[in-house]
Amino acid sequence: MPSFGQRLAHAWNAFRNKSDPFENVNPLTVGYSSANRPDRVRLTRGNERSIVTAAYTRIAVDVSNIDIRHVRNDEKGRLKEILKSPLNECLSLSANTDQTGRQFIRDVVVSMFDEGCVAIVPTDTDVSPKITGGFDILSMRTGKITQWYPNDVKVLVFNEAKGLKEEIIVPKKMCAIVENPFYSVMNEPNSTLQRVIRKLNLLDMTDEQNSSGKLDIVVQLPYTIRTEQRMIEAERRRKKLEDQLAKSKYGVAYVDATEKVTQLNRAVENNFKEQVEWFTTFLYGQLGIPMEVFYGTADEKTMLRYQNGTLATILNAICEELTRKFLTKTARTQGQTVTFFQDPFKLIPADKIADLGDKLIRNEIATANELRSKLGLPPSDDPKADELRNPNMPEAEDSGLPEEEEPVDPEELEEARQTLLDAGLNEDDLKGLSDNEIVDLAEEYNSQNGKEPEEAVPKQSSA
Q1: DSSP conformation letters of 206-260
Q2: What is the pLDDT of residues 141-163, one digit of tens each?
């Protein structure tokens, strides 16, 4: 820990030390500025005015809460290790200057839902991707595909250096293009989601008309309006009522005792609301999202169906495309892949964790320290906490059972038997001995080189 003098000499405060590192900073030369974050996703096609925005956000947050890692598997496809690679750092820690790994995945999912297809563009690499396919990705951004070519795509990507979004042409083999697995449900022109949006727009128009400043009243005059002169008088009377209401401070007007006023501004009867509710329920059913998930009342089985049916589908699409585009064939041959890990403990109540942990340890699936890390507890210093063993079963040295003997080479065993037979023993004498005892007895006989083996070998009774 630095001393008080060192802290006093090297301490820095952003307000008191304005000259360092902000000395001679010209606001006109720092680049483009904006009151709002320029790289934020802006929804289009009416999605920003629809209830589907809540569904987009919910699914994107749930997907980003699941860890996506760059790993290496063994020959049988089992997890061997998590690689400490730049790609893994982008997915887990920092994807670029503005976004963490989870924010980046959330951006990918929302953009994919909105556009139907999203491009993940490497913005910084250690070597040029045009020279070799074995490059390390240092930072990446989501891009909106504006034009498709046979082997390339034109994408709108945020440029960190300028602080603006720019269109660039990128080869398809250099960027990961993730298509929405629910494209036919969400992005087709006549899909369920687009029909929900159109119904909501019609419902909004009706609400605006009903909530406008019109009075919608009918004034019955004390005379019949059949001649042109009567129509002129009725129009003059209507204008007078409008002038009275417009010029009155409190909106008060008077009518003649013989005139009758009828109010018409009542709610228009239609079935838009029922249609929107039906389409919304049908949409969530097609996406595999139970309504209990949005209300926060979903049980463990419902959440499992939601994770395995909706979230896993989206994560598989993202991971497969990242593996296909950002890992070379050599790396894939070595077992490298991009995969995701779901934490099963998130769905388990606290009263069931102890029972589950006991089952995992007893069946030698996880160690005690691995379970402690899941619970947020520091690892234990006990060496047995890192052993994959059943603590309820006694160890070999404590059980009182004989240890298993090592197998004996058949040629060595036959040679030992022949040595003992030549020394005067018979087959009955050797029946009560194990293979290791026969070999040990033959070695002992050879070492003594003169001692009769009958003295060291117990005779078997004739009975």
Answers
A1: HHHHHTSS---EEEE-SS---SHHHHHHHHHHHHHHHHHHHH-SS------TT-E
A2: 999 999 999 999 999 999 988 88
